[in-house]
Amino acid sequence: MTTAIPMKKILTLTLIILLSFTSCSEDNDDNLSPQSIATFNFTHNWDGTLITNANFNSIEYTNAKGNLLSIERLRYIISDITFTSSTNESIVLDNYNLVDVTNNSGLSYTTEIPTGSYNVSFTFGLDNEDNAENYLDLNSASFNVPDMMGGGYHYMQFDGKFINTSNEEQGFNYHAIRAVDNAGTNPTFPQDTFFSVDLGTITISANTEIEVQMNIAEWFKNPNLWDLNVFNQMLMPNSTAQIMMFDNGQSVFSLGTVSQ
After folding, report:
1. pLDDT tens digits, residue range 129-149?
2. Dist CA 125 CA 156 (whole Å)
3. Carries keyword Signal (predicted)?
4. Which of 40, 119, 153, 207 is the least crowded, having the fewest Cβ atoms under 10 Å away?
């Protein structure tokens, strides 16, 4: 990925970011020892059935409301991965990763971190300060949100087709952004819709592989039973829909396999 413009936070400890992960320009602290390699792998499923881009463009999934649907595009941002020690000291990776399932990019990234046990969490999307920055790679990926809807960037673009009440294929655009009202020259923001995901305590030693699972079916069912006949397109300026996405997103991610 293209190097991003630095984001707001000061790291508790400075980290070395490896592989193709968008990161800030930082100095390395040679006194951090010993170091371990942590690799995050993002996998996707539908209530336990693995999904890759090989499963896209085919109507083969049924959501909790009973809508038959396909997946045609899925990409989203995770940011500010945080490792918190038992003494409540935090290491924050002040950067973001665009997970693009459609193009098989950003499905894993690797970082170096001091050996130890940490509570691991991350942000889905970008918090408000980070969302106000300018990221050349996200611009070129057409991940922007129009200024009339507050600017910044999408948190997720999830597109597909579903069978509507007329038994016809119809497109849907399940796009998550910062919830906005009064689209135009003076938009207002009723509620933050980025959210934190807590993966629990993970021991980082040597080369640690951490699976982060997204159950795509959860976007449609908990706590809001999602009817694609009602909410399918033009959801970005719909703050009610955005807040429903925020609510449903709380159960989407979970910790999968951790291997050393």
Report:
1. 999 999 999 999 999 999 999
2. 7
3. yes
4. 207
Asked if 195 contacts 170 with a C-beta cutoff of 8 angstroms, the reply is no
Under 8 Å between Cβ of 38 and 210: yes
pLDDT tens-digit series, residues 213-225: 999 999 999 999 9
Query: Domains of the chain: which residue ranges?
Result: 16-259
Q: What is the pLDDT of residues 181-201, one digit of tens each?
A: 998 999 999 999 999 999 999
pTM of the model: 0.88
The string of DSSP letters for 163-177 reads E-TTS-EEEEEEEE-
What is the rounded distance in angstroms from the CA atom of residue 190 to the CA atom of residue 85? 34
Residue 244 has φ and ψ, to the nearest 5°, of -65, -40
Q: How far is CA 58 from CA 47, 72, 107, in A?
A: 17, 8, 22
The tokens of 131 are what? 């969302």
Q: Which residues contact 29 (CB under 8 A, 6 or more apart)?
A: 13, 14
- The Cα–Cα gap between 72 and 74 comes to 7
As a whole number of angstroms, the distance between CA 63 and CA 195 comes to 23
